[in-house]
């Protein structure tokens, strides 16, 4: 969570995007998946290595029991211990270990692609939220600017009414316009606050009420990307976007799973090597030349370990013959999954082509709409100046003048909306072209 005081900082778009990429929970979860995939790869590599296990036991026995060293039965209380080490190695398992390692590498790459997609999605969402704050702020400025004009006109109209030049109804009309603008200013201020809070919450900033973005003059970006053909953008998207790459990796993993499933048809061969020894604290029973037994103290520990040392080694071959159709069904399921991922890849390619084409048309349409809004604003500004001049000399009434000012305000609001809609859609198209959101310039 953010610890700096939000009121002391004005956030730029780049700072918002970079902060989101560092702190977003979804991205953190995707990063954990990458770490987990790396561990899985180490697991798969470990399958090629031999296994080594050691064991030791120590116990006491009382009563009639066989001596662990001599093997004779007698009533006694003694201690004995066993020490063993075993080495096992998989010599052949239908190449399943090889395929598992290859699958682990594919899965690690897939997790990296998913992380990249999460970053792109979050960055684009943050950029959209940021632009929404800008849009609402610009819309508020338009209304406030028009309200300032209204207040000036209200003062002038009041003077003219007091002088008997204009009727009282004109003053009431201007006052009603002023009251309506005040209401819309409050609504616009609320829209700015809601948009700022939404962006702050997206960034996981606690002090979201004081969070604000940098006040800058955001110019309309160059539309040079629209000079490229849609096929050129689509070709770049195939290389830059993660959707198709993720689908391709899923298909490769499914094919590798099929190979692993088929490996169960083959025999498996393993080797083992074991060493062990025993030691006992029981007294030794020895016989002299005439067969008379005598009892001696236990032999020294290391002498017993050396004398009782044993070695075992061998090979184990397992041949699958019948397991209730489990292997065959696993192979069939893997084949079905390969086909499914192939369809998903084809669908991802179709969706990407469709999205690129739609983004291209949206950007072109937004560019045309923005250009048209600029023309509309200029036309409405001329119409407003003409209406103002006529109103000042009493050639038109307050209602017609207010309508002209309202049309100008509406045209200016449409221009602001078209401007930021154009900016966002250009950035979406640039993202498909391979320009990361964090690198965009406004």
UniProtKB/TrEMBL annotation:
Its main location: membrane. Keywords: Cell outer membrane, Membrane, Transmembrane, Transmembrane beta strand, Transport. It is found in: Cell outer membrane. It comes from the Bacteria. PANTHER family: OUTER MEMBRANE PROTEIN TOLC. Belongs to the outer membrane factor (OMF) (TC 1.B.17) family. This is TolC family protein. It comes from Aquimarina litoralis.
């Amino acid at each position: 969570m953010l610890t700096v005081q939000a009121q002391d900082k004005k956030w730029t778009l780049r700072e918002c995007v970079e902060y989101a990429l560092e702190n977003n929970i979804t991205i953190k979860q995707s990063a954990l998946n990458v770490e987990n995939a790396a561990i899985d790869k180490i697991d798969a590599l470990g399958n090629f290595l031999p296994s080594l296990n050691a064991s030791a036991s120590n116990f006491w026995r009382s009563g009639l029991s066989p001596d662990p060293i001599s093997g004779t039965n007698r009533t006694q209380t003694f201690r004995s211990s066993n020490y063993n080490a075993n080495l096992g190695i998989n010599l052949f398992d239908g190449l399943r270990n090889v395929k598992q390692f290859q699958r682990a590498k594919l899965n690690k790459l897939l997790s990296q692609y998913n992380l990249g997609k999460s970053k792109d999605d979050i960055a684009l969402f943050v950029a959209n939220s940021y632009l929404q704050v800008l849009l609402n702020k610009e819309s508020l400025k338009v209304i406030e600017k028009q309200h300032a004009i209204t207040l000036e006109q209200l003062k002038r109209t009041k003077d003219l009414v007091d002088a008997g030049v204009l009727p009282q109804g004109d003053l009431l009309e201007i006052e009603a316009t002023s009251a309506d603008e005040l209401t819309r200013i409050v609504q616009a201020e609320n829209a700015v606050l809601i948009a700022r809070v939404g962006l702050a919450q997206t960034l996981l900033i606690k002090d979201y009420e004081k969070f604000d973005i940098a006040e800058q003059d955001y110019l309309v970006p160059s539309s040079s990307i629209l000079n490229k053909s849609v096929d050129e953008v689509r070709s770049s998207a195939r290389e830059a976007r993660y959707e198709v790459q993720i689908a391709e990796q899923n298909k490769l993993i499914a094919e590798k799973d099929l190979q692993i499933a088929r490996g169960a048809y083959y025999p498996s061969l393993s080797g083992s090597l074991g060493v062990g020894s025993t030691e006992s604290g029981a007294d030794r029973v020895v016989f002299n030349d005439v067969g008379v037994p005598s009892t001696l103290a236990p032999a020294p520990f290391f002498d017993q370990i050396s004398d009782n040392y044993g070695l075992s080694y061998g090979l184990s071959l397992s041949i699958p013959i019948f397991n209730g159709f489990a292997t065959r069904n696993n192979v069939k399921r893997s084949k079905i999954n390969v086909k499914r991922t192939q369809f998903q890849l084809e669908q991802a390619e179709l969706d990407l082509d469709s999205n690129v084409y739609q983004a291209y048309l949206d950007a072109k349409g937004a560019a045309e709409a923005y250009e048209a809004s600029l023309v509309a604003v200029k036309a409405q500004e001329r119409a407003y100046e003409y209406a103002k001049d006529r109103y000042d000399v009493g050639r038109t009434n307050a209602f017609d003048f207010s309508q002209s000012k309202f049309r100008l305000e509406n045209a200016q609001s449409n221009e602001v909306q078209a401007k930021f809609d154009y900016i966002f859609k250009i950035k979406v198209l640039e993202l498909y072209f391979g320009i990361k959101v964090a690198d965009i310039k406004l």
